[in-house]
Request: fold
Amino acid sequence: MLHIIYMEMNKSTILLGHGSGGKLSHELIASVFLKHFNNEPLMRSTDSALLHIDCNDIVFTTDGYVVDPVFFPGGNIGKLAVCGTVNDIAVTGAQPLYLSASFIIEEGFAFDRLEEIVVSMAAEAKKAGVLIVTGDTKVVNKGKCDKIFITTSGVGVLDKKFKHIAGAGECRPGDKIIVNGSLGNHGMAVMSSREQLHYHTPVESDCGSLYSLIRAVTEEVPVSFMRDATRGGLATVLVELCGMTKLGISLDEEHIPIDDSVRGICEVFGFDPLYVANEGKVVMVVPAAYSTKAVQIMQSMAEGKDAAVIGEITGTEKPRVILNTVVGGKRIMDMLAGEQLPRIC
Amino acid sequence: MLHIIYMEMNKSTILLGHGSGGKLSHELIASVFLKHFNNEPLMRSTDSALLHIDCNDIVFTTDGYVVDPVFFPGGNIGKLAVCGTVNDIAVTGAQPLYLSASFIIEEGFAFDRLEEIVVSMAAEAKKAGVLIVTGDTKVVNKGKCDKIFITTSGVGVLDKKFKHIAGAGECRPGDKIIVNGSLGNHGMAVMSSREQLHYHTPVESDCGSLYSLIRAVTEEVPVSFMRDATRGGLATVLVELCGMTKLGISLDEEHIPIDDSVRGICEVFGFDPLYVANEGKVVMVVPAAYSTKAVQIMQSMAEGKDAAVIGEITGTEKPRVILNTVVGGKRIMDMLAGEQLPRIC
Reply:
């Protein structure tokens, strides 16, 4: 009888033994990770993945995900962990190829929720054209972490012609600033879900891979710079860009796409949507002559249908981000000092 | 006055804002991570590191570290996170080159303890010849994780002539099994430290990078297989090797190096040292004709001074690990079912 209870527990929740490196770990790896991530380098089941990469310029990145709640409208921590790392690579101009996934799981976490997370990671990886080739699982005692944390790292290959993008060295006064859609959805979706707020029009996270959209644009447009606008939102990306280029930025509030529902929640709770996190938004800087083309390419794709030119790079005399407000004022955008919304990713 | 208190707190403990991606994050990155990890790809301060690698066979690995306590005799979570990932790469026969480090920190964690961890990561990376080129920091509310978790991922390059090592395809009956020193020290050091046990001869973790030792051996010895004996200990590595090769293994208990202090603690608490975690031990399989040479090379180095031949690969008829005990019996070694010691790494 006891044995049966143990076996059923074993199937329904994560035990400390699932992180031991022993039999239960092997069962978990086979029944969940190998099953869904299924690819040749992973299947060799060594601690390290052996990869053959036909390029010598490599992009390498990592991000830890601690989002609360683990499941939110439009995604979950697993989808987020894949998209986030894919996007970090894609915005350098590189093609994301391989991901690692390291799980820290609280003892007692439901097995089927873990599988749901892993299934969505596999689906998102497939969509972005990347393989999850190596991983790790640790289980900590109940109360020693909050349900599940996932750290993904990624490797991509960078074509020489895109090497300038990450450093923003080609940005020039007059270049246009483009964003591929409405801002603030991820942050407000997670916050609403965490606080169990219900609205007429529920806000969904924009969590999604940007690689296809970015590739489509970069094939036809000489992009000067791009960055995904995650923690800290659009404003933080642009403030950082100013710091890198020593060039000013002028933003037109009226052209910045923000959904009415997001704007409404932000107003009620006192958030500035320009600082709220996104997980499927890229900020691009392109020469003015190409801005219409870039926007058209984006608008032809689902993840870019609300793309818009929202401002431009100005001169060197005032290397600041100036927001031209709807009411005709000007506002200097600075970096956030503290934390606006913790555990948003 | 309030402002002063805030500033002092700000310096002495980690705040949620240090994980925001805003100003405090930037300060933390500059004052701790960039300061100590100081290297060119990291200094570019983009989310992803751009690397030029002159080899197309890449090894990619990841591991999450949740060790409790964070500081233990012989090391801390940071040293462990660097050594562990360096070793996972080194045992494939590859040269570790680049590491990422992703931190999940509990709000209120002492700033100087974090710096201490980062300093030891930098020192260990230097020793192993790797650069920590990219990273991430998340801060979660007090009580939502246990002090600090670190996930490191690593990239290395693999010379063609070592490609067989990870797969163990060259292991032949008669090959000798070698270990570079005494077993069980890491597990018993962490457990003793966690439970605040005090002994006459304190046990220190063997936590250390194995790359120099492995390179020294592989330059002169055609290694058939190697693996670091971490979670699950020596026994788990050998049981996995049996599964991969379908060959038996015969171990001689009398030749397996185990420190008296570790043996004593294991006896008192009922642990089998062959299953206890190590963090600086490699298990190597080499052709019999090279075993003396391999042991000599190891013994000439500090991290291999107690190296010994501990057994050999036997035939296909019984693909099991058999331990020939000191008292003349035989014991079949199997994989651990559950967790012997949680949060050992």
In short: The radius of gyration of chain B is 21 Å. The first helix of chain B runs from residue 2 to 12. Chain B has two domains: 23-162, 176-333. DSSP finds ten helices and 14 strands in chain B.
